[in-house]
Design a protein that fits this description.
262 residues, two-stranded antiparallel ribbon
C-alpha cells in the first residue's frame, strides 16, 4: 500500500505580519514548524504501513525552506518527499492551493491512500483536503478517527460526524482528512537525520506540471481574495470595584446594566 501525506509548513508564532496589498501572510524570515494536525496524519500513515505493509511519502507546497518539514517527516519514517515551490504558486487561496497540490500529486506518482491533517493552524479552513480529492476525482472522508481494516481495493474507516461516529467502506484510491488527537505522533530520529540526502526530496515547479496554464495557480487561479485585513482592537480598560461583598455585588450589577448586558 502506497500512502501519501500532504503536509504544510506554518508559522511557529502568532506574531505574523500581513501584506497590506495582497492580504496574504508574510512568511519570509519567520520561524516555521510543521502543521500540528499533519503529525497525526503522518503517524496514521506509518502505523498503517507497519500493520499492512507499504511505504509512506509526503508532499508540501511552499517556499524552498519547506524542505525542512519534508526532512522532519523522513526522520519520522517517511520514505521520501516532494516540495512544490514556484513564485507562480504564491498568494493562492484554498482553491488554487488544492489545484496545485493535485497537480503535484499526479507528478509524484500513484497512491492508494492520501492523508491530510484536519486543517492548518494558519488558515483553519479545513477545505483543501476535500478540494484536492475533487480535482483528483477520488472519494474523500473528513474527520477520520481510525482505520479498522484494509482490503485489496478498499479501506474501512471510522469518522466523526456532528452527533455520531460513522463506519464507512471506501474504495481506493481515496483521500482521508485525519482528525486531531487521535494518536501520539512519534518523534523524529536523529540517527535518520544524519543519513537524509537531497535525492530523497524532489523539488517540483510550475514547469513540471501537466497543466501549463498560469491562470490556474497562485493569485490568478484564486477564486477569492482578501479585500482588507486588520488586527483586532485591544481593549485594555480596567475598572476596580471596592467595598464589602454587598457593595461589590451592587457595583458589578450596575456596571452590567450600564453596558446593557442585562
Amino acid at each position: 500500500m502506497k500512502i501519501l501525506v500532504c503536509i504544510k509548513q506554518v508559522p511557529g508564532s502568532s506574531n505574523v505580519e500581513v501584506d497590506p496589498v495582497t492580504g496574504v501572510l508574510k512568511r519570509d524570515g519567520i520561524q516555521s514548524k510543521m502543521n500540528p494536525y499533519d503529525l497525526y496524519a503522518i503517524e496514521m500513515a506509518l502505523s498503517l504501513t507497519e500493520q499492512y505493509g507499504g511505504s509512506v511519502e509526503v508532499i508540501t507546497m511552499g517556499p524552498p525552506q519547506a524542505k525542512g518539514i519534508i526532512t522532519e517527516a523522513i526522520c519520522m519514517g517517511a520514505k521520501k518527499g516532494s516540495v512544490l515551490s514556484d513564485r507562480k504558486f504564491a498568494g493562492a487561496d484554498v482553491l488554487a492551493t488544492a489545484y496545485t497540490i493535485s497537480q503535484g500529486i499526479q507528478k509524484a506518482g500513484e497512491f492508494d491512500v492520501i492523508l491530510c491533517g484536519k486543517q492548518t493552524t494558519d488558515g483553519d479552513t479545513a477545505q483543501v483536503g476535500a478540494e484536492v480529492s475533487e480535482f483528483l476525482g477520488i472519494p474523500n472522508v473528513a474527520n477520520v478517527l481510525s482505520v479498522t481494516n484494509v482490503a485489496d481495493d478498499s479501506i474501512i474507516v471510522t469518522a466523526s460526524l456532528d452527533d455520531k461516529v460513522a463506519t464507512m467502506n471506501i474504495k481506493m484510491p481515496c483521500l482521508l482528512s485525519v482528525d486531531g488527537d487521535i494518536n501520539s505522533p512519534r518523534l523524529p530520529s536523529y540517527k535518520v537525520l544524519q543519513s537524509v540526502t537531497d535525492d530523497l526530496i524532489d523539488i517540483y515547479s510550475f514547469s513540471d506540471f501537466a497543466d501549463q496554464n498560469p491562470d490556474h495557480y497562485g493569485l490568478m487561479g484564486s477564486a477569492t481574495q482578501v479585500e482588507r485585513i486588520f488586527p483586532p482592537e485591544k481593549n485594555a480598560e480596567k475598572r476596580s470595584i471596592s467595598g464589602n461583598a454587598d457593595e461589590q455585588s451592587e457595583g458589578l450589577y450596575q456596571l452590567i446594566r450600564e453596558r446593557k448586558l442585562v
